[in-house]
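>> Question from a student workshop board

For tomorrow's exercise we were told to take the sequence and the ligand below, predict the bound structure, and bring the output to class. My setup keeps failing. Could a helper post the expected result so I can at least see what it should look like? The ligand is manganese (II) ion.
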Amino acid sequence: MEFALPGATGEAPAERFTGEVWWDAVHSGGEPSRMRANLVRFAPGARTHWHSHALGQSLHVVSGVALIGTRDGVVFAAWPGELVVCPPGEEHWHGAAPDRFMEHLAMWEGTEDGSPGTTWLEPVTDEQYAPARTTSA
Ligand code: MN
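>> Workshop helper replied:
Here is what the output should look like for this input. Compare the format with yours to find the bug.
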């Protein structure tokens, strides 16, 4: 049995995120496990760049309202307690609503060197983010 102390919170790299994003690596499984989980906190308006995950990714919303966009222009909203499943290879982004913080637990599989990894693409433009709403109104 092993008890792990939490590592330091890290700031997400600006070349993959827009706005201020911080995370805690909750779990990085050692071989043969490839389980990985990051608790990610997005400032209002912050979001990932477009990207896809080779093996998919699941997002458990902890607080705030999570926005998840796909290439068809749809922006989904997800609330605390809800789970968003991103299928393998599907390009998407996720982030906070414009007016509040958002925190989600990101769960995926990968090795320490990042393979099979996440393919990072271009930033989400303000026009792509604009349809985001915190309510259906
Ligand atoms: Mn993702």
